[in-house]
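Subject: Sanity check before I submit

Could someone independently write out the structure tokens for this chain? I want to compare against mine line by line before I put it in a report. The sequence has 356 residues.
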Amino acid sequence: MYLARWPVGFVIIFCAISPATGAPLTFSITDLGTLGGAKSQPRSINNSAQIVGLAMTSEGVYDAFIWSNGIMTDLGGNLAAANGINNAGQISGTSKAFHGFFQSGDTIADIPFGQFTYGFGINSSGVVVGYGLFGGIPRSYSWSDGTLTDLGTLATEGSQAASINDKGQIAGGLYLHVPFHTVGAGFLLSDGQLTILSTLGGGDGWANAINNNGQIVGQSSLAGDRTTHACIWYDGGILDLGTAGWKASYGNGINNNGQVVGTLMASAVDPITHAFLYSNGINVDLNDLIPADTGWILNNAYSINDAGQIVGDGINPQGLSHAFLLSPLPEPAFAGILFTCAGALFSTNRRRRERY
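---
Independent answer below. Compare away.
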């Protein structure tokens, strides 16, 4: 927000989130509900606003779900969590037998790989990526039309593939052994070539999602390894997304427009978190972008589609941890400019104060 001197000695306050930033002024919020129990958590949203995740049933267990047109549907008692959905409505996830799975319509394919298998990202061609555990060591895989490809540990202490784009580029995390301990690093696997992603000066990093432009979102520690910031890797570079005034941040999802959603943290040990949106150079607490009277506290944001719709979880007005959908509200004429009389200025030499 910035304050600019007005010729007659008054101040005009321009909203920090304006049409010029590309970020909407406000969102509507929809409670996605549960499968009969107390809690739900979304993982991914596609461009048709279909949402997948996991939710508690009336029996107190978690089942995978898909939410579409206001209805949450249980994907079946054998499926524990749905983690990815593409624009064709195909789903990836993890079953209760700790196998990965791929679902297309009524067809479900089982993906076993190691003692425990997790399915995460899925692209428009229905290629699933994830990882399996072998003696406690994670190995990445890709799966397509019944064929599983072992990507291995990628020459490190272990690898966890998290996301795949429509070009077949894969992003995720690696475990690097360094003297005295093991640290994480983000990776990009493109055309068989492995790139270990840089950091923001610290020794630790992780990649969580990649868009079709090859932009990767995740987080990295800063020099001294005392805090972690959400970041974007792009064309060999890295961009610090900041923390919106909080202690730390984690980047969880990115759309094809380069908008990022994630989590703000009060500290490494403090359980208080807020969801954020990063758009056109500004990182904003999503709790500041919903009407003040909703009664919600938005804790985490996991995924954002190309229309700017966001899914996450938070505490609803009834005090329960539920999945939510945020949808951008249309901006009215002159939206983003809030004319507020701040009182007469007694000095015409007052310096302009700037804040992002």
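---
OP: Matches mine. For the report I'm noting this point. The two ends are 6 Å apart (CA to CA).
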